[in-house]
Write a structure and sequence with these properties.
The chain is mostly helical. Helix content is 85%, strand content 0%. The chain is built from 5 helices and no strands. The longest helix has 27 residues.
Length: 113
Amino acid sequence: MIYVFLQLVQISLTFVIPNLAQLTFNQSALVAGFLLLAGSLLSSFLGPVMGRLLDDRGPHFPLIAGSLCIMASLILFTVFIAHLTILTIIAFHVLYMLGFSMMYNNTMTLGLQ
């Protein structure tokens, strides 16, 4: 269930963030897409690192730390929805993707074990 929930939230954010940038901030599609770039690059580089962390420290640390990062980012999105700027959207998305990279591949690995 964790894996499915993470994927649903990920798909939702990758749909909502560019639409928010285009409709609310009147940004181009290119700029709206670039809002997701920092978090996506972070996640792609941290995937193997978090897998190593799972091997070294076990599943508790990456899953708990990842879920705290995800919860914090979603709460920040919710609390600051009326005051979001381009930079805060990028920062909150990077925080989400940090937690996502800690949890997503590791939950698949644990599920397959």
